[in-house]
Amino acid sequence: MSGLNIDCALVRCTLTGFIREELGKFGFTRAVIGMSGGIDSTVSAYLAAEALGAPNVTGLLMPYRTSNPESRADAELAAGELGIETLVVDISPMVDAYFEGFPDASKERRGNKMARERMTILYDHSMALRAMVVGTSNKTEILLGYTTLWGDMASAVNPIGDLYKCQVRALARHLNVPARIVEKAPSADLWTGQTDEGELGFTYDDADRVLYELIDRRRDCESLIADGLNPEFVRRVYRMIRDSQYKRRMPVIAKLSHRSVDRDFRYSRDWGR
Amino acid sequence: MPFTVRLAQLSPVLGDVQANLERHLELIGQAQADGVDLIVLPEMSLCGYHVRDLAAEVALRRGSRELGAIAAATQGTAAVVGFVEELPGFELCVAAGYFEAGSLLHVHHKVYLPTYGMFDEQRYFANGTRIRAFESRLGPMAMLVCEDIWHPSAPMIAAHDGAHVLIVLANSPARGPRDGTWETEQAYDGMLRTYAELFGSYVVFVNRVGYEDGVHFWGGSRVIAPDGQELVRAPIGEEAFVEATLDPDDVRRVRIATPLLADENLDLTIRELTRIRDERTEH
């Protein structure tokens, strides 16, 4: 779909400038990124390395004992191409220690715990390395809520959060990300055999098309259905957006005073920068 | 007499008037040392764009130390500066000030404050209530701010009021990265060329660059001659200082060759617009 086409060279230049400036305003020159070996974190790492220079970017690889070994190999491949430092922190001991107390926990609980475990390690290294956490969530998963709140969603700056999955793919090709990373089936790799599209029950390309029409073009479900799109699918995507809105907001604060944070106390994050 | 304009496509510090003021004074001083006649800075160049609840804190009154310092620096080179002005009735306006020969010659208050999509300006600011040309040492000018030029009546009024040069200060955010540029830039490009040609005027457009909370301002400042030819264009997305020489005789030549302004039927326009307004208010 032509509306989803982006000028990758201009996007690349804008996003590297974004990383450089938004870190620089806060006195940071270094970035830390959780690298899963997937396309999103690889693209974020490529952008950060170009923006800040490879010596200023650290890739954190945080496998769990059931993670697919290919994920780690792909993250190492990307880091090697970029010449960035990597650190490996195995999260199995802490995650397993926790679930010893909750042996019946579902795989979803375990998956969320892993995502949040990784977040705490990233933020610990943010302080240890004086490096900002660069985010890896794309617009498709943010809108669908297909992401763990305070887990993989957490970051200081996110260069790819306004790019749909298909646009991340186009940008990855433009950045010469290794083909096997671009082409493999997207997976959160939280349990063996998990794939995003398998779990969601639809493809990212189909979701991107509906999201683009609903969000960017402000169309409504009925007009998309009239265009011939599957009614059930269109309504499901709409519900996923609605039902995950809480993930895209700060915690709701009960209003009592005449001026409450985030309601009538309104300042930009870059205040004074 | 031809004169030179320098377009200062910079990235202000958000909410730090003092830091921005120091940079303005340096740039005006440099322009003067370089023999430039006029330097133009972007919209809200003294405070940055997303000031939100800082609006009152960054606002300046006529006669303030900051505006006085800029005026004092313009003994040789004139300067157009963007700021928030606090009026005597405490309204806050997005202002463009034209400073020359040691004083603040003219102020335009942004008339059209976008409050839709990503914009929230009417929450914080009051609308300007007039569009006026003014006589400067460099000839008749008018200033408009960003959203003002999305309303063709604004440059039309300015040109009919006698302006030969339309100075447009902008904080235009980049949206739609397609075909080598931003869709926003393409829209501005069309408007600026069209206005230069339709109103037989120079158009001096200065847009900021940099990022605020992830919003990127695309720059691309430029000067369009009255025949629609682009004289200079600053790059997209980076700080830049570019110059052009404007020749007032070009305005005369173009307006005689293609007398669109002179031929305008103002009576008809006013009559029809009055009718349209009256019919609307009947509802």
Q: So what's the overall shape of chain B? A: globular
The N- to C-terminal Cα distance of chain A equals 38 Å
Got a strand count of chain A? 4
What would CATH call the homologous superfamily of the domain at 2-190 in chain A? HUPs
The total count of strands of chain B amounts to 16
CATH topology of chain B: Nitrilase/N-carbamoyl-D-aminoacid amidohydrolase
> What is the strand content of chain B?
25-35%
Unreliable spans of chain B: none
Shape of chain A: globular
| CATH class division of the domain at 2-190 in chain A | Alpha Beta
Give the name of the CATH architecture of chain B.
4-Layer Sandwich
Helix-strand sequence of chain B: EHEHHEEEHEEHEEEHEEEEEEHHH
Main β sheet profile of chain A: 4 strands, parallel
Question: Roughly how much helix do the residues of chain B carry, as a percent range?
Answer: 25-40%
Q: Give the chain pair forming the largest contact, with residue counts.
A: A-B, 22 and 25 residues
What would you say this structure looks like, in words?
- The complex is a heterodimer of chains A (about 270) and B (about 280).
- In chain A, helix 2 (about 40-50) links the parallel strand 1 (about 30-35) and strand 2 (about 55-60).
- Chain A is globular and about 50 Å long.
- With about 270 residues, chain A is an alpha/beta fold.
- Chain A has a domain at about 1-190: 3-Layer(aba) Sandwich (Rossmann fold), CATH 3.40.50.
- Chain A has twelve helices and four strands.
- Chain B is α/β, with parallel strands linked by helices and about 280 residues long.
- Chain B has a single domain (about 5-280), classed as Nitrilase/N-carbamoyl-D-aminoacid amidohydrolase (4-Layer Sandwich), CATH 3.60.110.10.
- Chain B has nine helices and 16 strands.
- Chain B has helices at about 15-35, 55-60, 65-75, 120-125, 155-160, 185-200, 250-255, 260-265, 265-280; strands at about 5-10, 40, 80-85, 90-100, 105-110, 135, 140-145, 165-170, 175-180, 180, 200-205, 210, 215-220, 220-225, 230-235, 240-245.
- In chain B, helix 1 runs parallel beside helix 3 (about 65-75).
- Chain B starts with a strand and ends with a helix.
- The model of chain B has no long low-confidence stretch (mean pLDDT about 95).
- Chains A and B meet through helix 1 of A and strand 9, strand 10 and strand 12 of B.
